[in-house]
Amino acid sequence: MKCYVTLLRYLAFLQRPRPLSLFFFFLRFFFFFLFLLNMSNRHTIVLIQTSHNRATRTFMDFESVTQAMDGICALYERKLKELNPASRNFSYDIADLYNFMDGLADMSALVYDHSIHAYVPHDRQWIKQRTLRHLKKFAH
């Protein structure tokens, strides 16, 4: 019964005339929501070439930039497991991850931009910056 009364009060509140500031509040909220939607759901393709041999070209695709940065870290962690199969736990810092990225023959990312309906290319340096920003979130 209490929930029903609360719902009725909310519906009555919605039917009252509002000041213009409430309209702008909802407008800002709407645009902020669209911004978050575009930032979080930007399909990302990571292009990697591990050596100078063209046959080593490959790609990984992700639903967001954040997932792509996770995927790059996971790729490095798989490489660490290959090099040290007996170890179960690994620790590395950003310099180690950067050295791994620099050791690749080529690395770039294509990020879908909803506003232009196209993929925007990004270089290795951009990937490093985004990876650092992504890992800093986990450090806090």
From TrEMBL:
<keyword id="KW-0812">Transmembrane</keyword>
<dbReference type="InterPro" id="IPR035912">
    <property type="entry name" value="EHR_sf"/>
</dbReference>
<feature type="transmembrane region" description="Helical">
    <location>
        <begin position="20"/>
        <end position="37"/>
    </location>
</feature>
<protein>
    <recommendedName>
        <fullName>Enhancer of rudimentary homolog</fullName>
    </recommendedName>
</protein>
<comment type="similarity">
    <text>Belongs to the E(R) family.</text>
</comment>
<dbReference type="Pfam" id="PF01133">
    <property type="entry name" value="ER"/>
</dbReference>
<dbReference type="InterPro" id="IPR000781">
    <property type="entry name" value="ERH"/>
</dbReference>
<keyword id="KW-0472">Membrane</keyword>
<keyword id="KW-1133">Transmembrane helix</keyword>
